[in-house]
Amino acid sequence: MFSLVFLTYSSIVSYTSTIQIKNKYSKNRLGITIPKNAHAFEAPFIFSSRPPFDNGWYWTIEPEDDNNTLTRQPVMCGSIVTLVNPTVEHYLSTKPGSNGIEAVAVGHKHEASDQWLLVCKNNTIWTQDEPIQLINVKNKCYLSTNLYEKIPDSANKYVVKCGPLNDETVWYASEGIYYKDPEVNTRSQEEEL
């Protein structure tokens, strides 16, 4: 006689997790354009889109400062984070534009314009599928997207901006790389065969 042990882990977002961030309202994922070749280089820009898959959908979660001791530690709600795309190494940032505050890609940290306050709805630790909002530290606006502001001349790409609180500002962590933390929300079950 032997027993099987099944362990289930909550998918906790940790610093250095690389994840997709999906908008609850539109079901679009936050993305950044990936250069196709060196001859037709275009500066990366921020967008949201739906499937099919896009290489620009992944974001690595970093602390507000370069604190290496937080690597693989759970991201607490109320923390200030930065989001960097690991492929093009650009940060999610903001700048004033003709239609309000725009979400933009920058190649290096600009401090407060690249920092986002993480607001969770229910938990104290950011977990996968937990509704969250990202508030820009500098501009005090919410990251948002919708389905009626398309990016001109771009198939399946929608505008991402930073604006007032509304239904379009709710996001959650979707697919990606999550690190197991056996001390947090672990459950084991034994079953005799």
What would you say this structure looks like, in words?
It is a single chain. Mean pLDDT is 86; it is low at 4-8 and 184-193. Helix content is 0%, strand content 45%. The protein has strands at 3-9, 18-23, 29-32, 46-49, 58-63, 80-85, 90-97, 100-106, 116-120, 132-136, 142-150, 158-163, 171-177, 186-192. The chain has one domain: Trefoil (Acidic Fibroblast Growth Factor, subunit A), CATH 2.80.10. The chain is built from no helices and 14 strands.
CATH topology: Trefoil (Acidic Fibroblast Growth Factor, subunit A)
Radius of gyration over all CA atoms, rounded? 18 Å
The CATH class turns out to be Mainly Beta
- Number of domain modules: 1
* Total DSSP E strands: 14
Low-confidence stretches: 4-8, 184-193
Can you summarize this structure?
Helices cover 0% and strands 45% of the residues. It is mainly beta and 193 residues long. The protein has a single domain (3-192), classed as Trefoil (Acidic Fibroblast Growth Factor, subunit A).
Task: Output the keywords.
mainly beta; ten-stranded antiparallel beta sheet; globular; two-stranded antiparallel sheet; Trefoil (Acidic Fibroblast Growth Factor, subunit A); disordered C terminus; 193 residues
Topology:
Blueprint: E1 3-9, E2 18-23, E3 29-32, E4 46-49, E5 58-63, E6 80-85, E7 90-97, E8 100-106, E9 116-120, E10 132-136, E11 142-150, E12 158-163, E13 171-177, E14 186-192
Antiparallel strand pairs: 1-14, 2-5, 2-13, 3-4, 5-6, 6-7, 6-9, 7-8, 8-12, 9-10, 11-12
